[in-house]
Amino acid sequence: MTRRILITGASVAGNTLAWWLGRTGFDVTVVERAPAFRDGGQNIDVRGSGREVLRRMGLEQSALEQGTGEEGTAWVDANGRIAAQFLTADQDGDGPTAEMEILRGDLARLLYEPAAERATYRFGDSVTAIVEDDEAACVTFASGRTERYDAVIVAEGVGSATRTHVFAHENAPRWMDLTIAYFTIPRTADDDRLWRWYNAPGGRSVSLRPDRHGTTRVMLSVQQPPGGEQDWSQERQKTWLRKRFSDAGWQSARVLEGMDATDDFYFDVLRQVRMPRWSKGRVVLTGDAAWCATPIAGIGTTLAITGAYVLAAEMARSDDVVAAFAAYERAMRPMVEDAQGVPKIAPRLMNPHSRLGIRLLHGALRMASRPAVRGITGKLFGGSTKEPDLSQYDQNRTDGSTGAPERAVTAAGRGALSPLLALGAVGLVLGVSAVVGRRNAPDPSHPRIRKWYRGLDKPGFTPPDAAFGAVWPVLETGLAVGGYRLLRQPSGTARNTAVGLWLLNTAMVGGWTQLFFREKQLGASAAASGAMVASSAAYVAAAARVDKPAAAVGIPFVAWLGFATLLAERIWRDNPEKGR
Ligand SMILES: Cc1cc2nc3c(=O)[nH]c(=O)nc-3n(C[C@H](O)[C@H](O)[C@H](O)COP(=O)(O)OP(=O)(O)OC[C@H]3O[C@@H](n4cnc5c(N)ncnc54)[C@H](O)[C@@H]3O)c2cc1C
Fold first, then answer.
1. CB distance 533 to 558 below 8 Å
2. Which of 297, 368, 404, 409 has a 20 to 30 A CA-CA distance from 37?
3. What CATH code is carried by the domain that includes residue 42?
4. Substitution site in 101, 126, 156 for ligand 1 pocket (most atoms within 8 Å of beta carbon)
């Protein structure tokens, strides 16, 4: 017997489900609260398993063709000068700008139009009550209708009213201390094909992104604790933004003028949806309604498409909806927990409050965008490592191919940082260390330090200055790779010990340059160098218990410190008058 399914919400998750369930022979109705299909929304990206699902639907090529044409991401200063940039052309795979960047409305329409061929869509209606009996869920709508369904799928986004109704008090939202507004403004001649991101003091940022409709997409964000702003009227939200950004600089004046005239304004105070379960009887949650990870995680659309596909596939292979919902939850939980692992410090790191913080962020990003590190960053944005194994649903494919190179589900990774955040943390820590190191370097910009250093008696095995300049970037890259790999591991005593030692050693590198070049403490610096041999060896040993490659790339660091200690000790002994 054909099963009757109700989907509420006609956006990314709802339309993907309607597409798959309609093609599998279910009798599908989609009810959307808005009076007509919603076209709005800004740039979103689809990565990893999300792209695989689109490929299986035969829609991947169309999605790429409808892309925004964004060519990369650049952080700019108040004069529009680029402080750091990641170009997609330089990236092997996805970077901050993914290979598949598309407007939310364009993607939702791409899914909606073919889905509507095999599902009934009803706009301007919503659920008011659901009562279950042994046979079905009896649903009452705002329009007054009452219908019976075998299953109800709630895909209503982060603020879902049906979720609140069916799963009362179960959501424990995690507020991310970031308020965001998206809207569209007219394009000007100097808007290029880059996503330009400007940080202003006070935790504010303005970003401009290209689209394929001849307009420019704006995002304004403010890093601050939540204050109920999502419930204000649109007029009050705009007035508040006007006040907050009136002195922000760069293109703020133009953006605020555009905001007054826009007819496409989306505002939200970011919070994750945290549900202990995603189904109850015949009702199941999916997409942002189930697990909103917020745009900070950078994977919301990929999760919505993947989750919809997995849910449809599990419903297709079992007549028991409760069993199908349980299998769907088992398959999706690890990926969702991985995406939701973003720590609350993330918005603060990306939206510094002080000018110094902005300079450090730019320094860290510049470092992460260097060619030597860029090769790694390409791999970091490719999708979640906890994606479900889609090959188990191969019989659902419509693109004619068989099998797929999906990754298997691994153990849940609580506490593992997302790729973007791990990269940011590594860049920030090493960036600070590099800034301190440069401040103390015996180079032409520090003539007094340089003169003192050149006047020291040094042993014959002292390498030329150029060798130091060449060795440190290699060692720091090893530390960066090691730190990144460790931060991506699930939290636990061994991982946290290794991360602690990584932080200690990175801090000691900067501290040592201060002690030797600025303080001229030759004895203390030789002792500190010896201590670093021990602490770096402890770091490598701790890392080896968690991740062997992370340990391996730390070994040259230990070896160099051993050599540096011999050198520092000889310089101390040979220069009794020149140190302190
Ligand atoms: C208009 C709009 C603009 C967006 N813009 C951005 C953006 O610029 N950047 C970004 O990262 N993310 C944006 N998002 C969120 C993004 O689409 C989601 O994070 C992600 O794609 C997951 O999609 P979803 O289908 O689970 O939820 P959503 O995309 O949030 O879709 C939920 C759908 O359910 C409908 N709905 C809500 N309540 C009910 C109800 N009670 N009954 C029936 N229908 C209901 C909504 O109208 C909407 O169509 C936007 C969402 C919307 C709706």
1. yes
2. 297
3. 3.50.50.60
4. 156
Instruction: Among 392, 419, 449, identify where a domain stops.
Output: 392
Q: Average pLDDT, whole number, for the chain?
A: 87
> Is position 431 within any domain?
no
User: CA 69, CA 211: separation in Å to the nearest integer?
Assistant: 7
Instruction: Clarify whether residues 93 and 211 are in a common domain.
Output: yes
Residue pointed to by tokens 């290029």: 192
CB 381 within 8 A of CB 459: no
DSSP readout, 499-529? Answer: HHHHHHHHHHHHHHHIIIIIS--HHHHHHHH
Q: Which residues line ligand 1 (CB under 6 A)?
A: 8-14, 31-34, 38, 40-42, 44, 104, 126, 155-157, 160-162, 182, 266, 287-288, 295, 300-301, 304
The reply to whether the predicted model has a pTM over 0.85 is no
One-letter amino acid identity for 339? Answer: A
**pLDDT of res. 183:** 94
Please give the distance, rounded to the nearest whole angstrom, from the Cα atom of residue 66 to the centre of ligand 1.
Answer: 19
Burial-class residue 201 by CB neighbours within 10 Å (0-12, 13-18, 19+).
Answer: middle
Number of domains in the chain: 2
Ligand 1 atom showing the smallest separation from residue 290 Cα: 26
539 in Cβ contact with 554 (< 8 Å): yes
Query: pLDDT by residue (tens digit) across 497-530?
Result: 888 888 888 878 878 888 888 888 888 888 888 8
Angle, CA 161 vertex, CA 155 and CA 162 arms, to 5°: 60
Quote the ligand 1 centre to 425 CA distance (angstroms): 30
Domain check: are 47 and 149 in the same one? yes
CA-292 nearest atom, ligand 1: 19
Q: Decide which of 334, 359, 392 is a domain's last residue.
A: 392
Query: Residue written as tokens 């998750």?
Result: 13
Q: Do the domain assignments include residue 180? A: yes
Decide if 373 is inside a domain.
no
Residue 180's pLDDT band (cuts 50, 70, 90): very high
Going by CA atoms, what residue is nearest to atom 9 of ligand 1? 42
Determine the distance separating the centroid of ligand 1 and the alpha carbon of 118, expressed in angstroms: 22
Among 118, 149, 142, 86, smallest CA distance to 19 is for: 118
Alpha helices in 318-341 (DSSP H): 321-340
Query: How many Å lie between the centroid of ligand 1 and the Cα of residue 288?
Result: 8
**Same domain for 444 and 327:** no
Q: Could you tell which of 6, 7, 11 is best to mutate to test the pocket of ligand 1, judged by most ligand atoms within 8 Å of the CB?
A: 11
CA of 157 to the centre of ligand 1 (A): 5
Classify residue 292: in a domain, yes or no: yes
3-state secondary structure at position 492: coil
Q: What is the pLDDT of residue 325?
A: 97
Same domain? For 332 and 468 the reply is: no
Tell the residue nearest (CA) to atom 50 of ligand 1.
41
Task: Round to whole Å and give the CA distance between 43 and 52.
Answer: 19
**Structural domain of 460:** 440-574
Helix (H) or strand (E) holding 427: helix 419-439
For residue 84, give the amino acid letter.
A
SS3 letters for 95-163? CCCCCCEEEHHHHHHHHHHHHCCCCEEEECCCEEEEEECCCCEEEEECCCCEEEECEEEECCCCCCHHH
C-alpha angle 507-204-194 in degrees, rounded to nearest 5: 90
